[in-house]
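Renewal narrative, Specific Aim 1. Our central claim is that a sequence can be written position by position from structural information alone. The example that follows is taken directly from our test logs and has not been curated for this report. It begins with the structure tokens describing the chain, in the order in which they were read.
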């Protein structure tokens, strides 16, 4: 395996009252989809700060039938 897989140590989330942004920041230090969700927030923030950026959104049709149509509508 490439060394890049082992650069970040997994940390447990501290269970206490916190904001969503704090929770997502901590999730980026966990594993699997928690980490991916936290990393996605970092990418989203970087994209928002970019001045000349075009965001193209693609999604599968099953997202609408899976109850995610409202979030897709909000993103558009």
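The sequence written for that structure reads:
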């Amino acid at each position: 395996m490439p060394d890049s897989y082992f650069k970040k140590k997994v940390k447990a989330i501290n269970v206490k009252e916190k904001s969503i942004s704090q929770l997502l920041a901590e999730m980026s230090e966990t594993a699997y989809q928690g980490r991916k969700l936290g990393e996605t927030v970092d990418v989203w923030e970087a994209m928002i700060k970019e001045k000349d950026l075009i965001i193209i959104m693609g999604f599968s049709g099953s997202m609408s039938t899976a109850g995610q149509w409202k979030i897709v509508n909000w993103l558009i």
